[in-house]
Amino acid sequence: MSQATFEMSRRGPSPRVAHMISGLSFYRETSGGLFHQRETASLVVPLIISLGTPFMIALGRDAREGDGQPSFAAGLFAGPVDIRSNGRAECVQIDFTPLGAYRFFGRSASELTGRMVDIADILGGEGRALRERIGATRRWPQRFEILEDFVARRATHRPSAEIVFAYRSLAEAGGDARIKALAKEIGWSRKHLVERFKAEIGLAPKSVARIMRFNRACGLARMGKRQGWAMIAAEAGYADQAHFSREFSTFAGESPTAWAGRLGAADPRLARAIDSDAVW
């Protein structure tokens, strides 16, 4: 495997689309050879426009030949994502929030859950035209402007007020909220809330809450301000270390210590989160 050499640029959204997307990014590999990365479960719905060779991507398993993904949209997935490329990958990416994905994709957003769908299949001829226009534009500021224009023009769907309230309540609580209590506050049954939530967000509220809690734990580890996984688990809202370990394995595909060790070279602060005497 070659040393990973690449260029990456991230940009926050402008005010006109900030309620739908968390950011835009450009990525280009600059050396040949196999690149490999693993991403943990997140609450991002990406739309990726490939300008180079396709990535090989698999959900919850190792990617292999035949898993090539050109330009595509991917829904929420409650597990790790394995990504491989050959050193010639290049793309632009829009990161939608779950509510923003509904505004942009409409009911099709939930159909993306646990799947990757070609841009032409999810956006039709407009998707193919967008790919061609991005490819024909050489300056990155203009490419980002084209993407934001496209998002703003197509975002004509409105999530229901009850689901917006439920999602934001979960986010404000860091995933530490009772679904039954949320349903009661909205005036729905728990079953009805779960069904409507899945129809608009793609995952059940409990699954989304679990990912929020997991992401909070990862954020605390990256900050490097907590000594040991036990303290991180407690602050993130886990009942005990065993529960935290199981959840981490589900969403990251590895133990907390293995995750921190793998990322430690890029972010040495993670080493401060490792309990040397902890067994995971």
Shape: globular
| Fraction in beta strands | 15-25%
The number of domains: 3
User: Any idea what the CATH architecture of the largest domain is?
Assistant: Sandwich
What would you report as the Rg, rounded to the nearest angstrom? 19 Å
Secondary-structure element order, N to C: EEEEEEEEEHHEHHHHHHHHHH
Strand element count:
10
Tally of helical runs: 12
Distance between the termini: 28 Å
Low-confidence stretches: 267-280
Strands of the largest sheet, in order across it?
Answer: 1-2-9-4-7-10
Broad CATH class of the largest domain: Mainly Beta
Secondary-structure class: alpha+beta
Question: How many strands, what sense, and barrel or not for the largest sheet?
Answer: 6 strands, antiparallel
Describe the secondary-structure layout.
Blueprint: E1 6-11, E2 21-29, E3 35-39, E4 45-50, E5 55-59, E6 68-69, E7 72-74, E8 81-85, E9 90-96, H1 98-105, H2 108-111, E10 116-118, H3 119-123, H4 125-136, H5 140-154, H6 161-172, H7 179-186, H8 190-201, H9 205-223, H10 229-236, H11 241-252, H12 256-264
Antiparallel strand pairs: 1-2, 2-9, 3-8, 4-7, 4-9, 5-6, 5-8, 7-10
Helix pairs in contact: 6-9, 7-8, 9-10
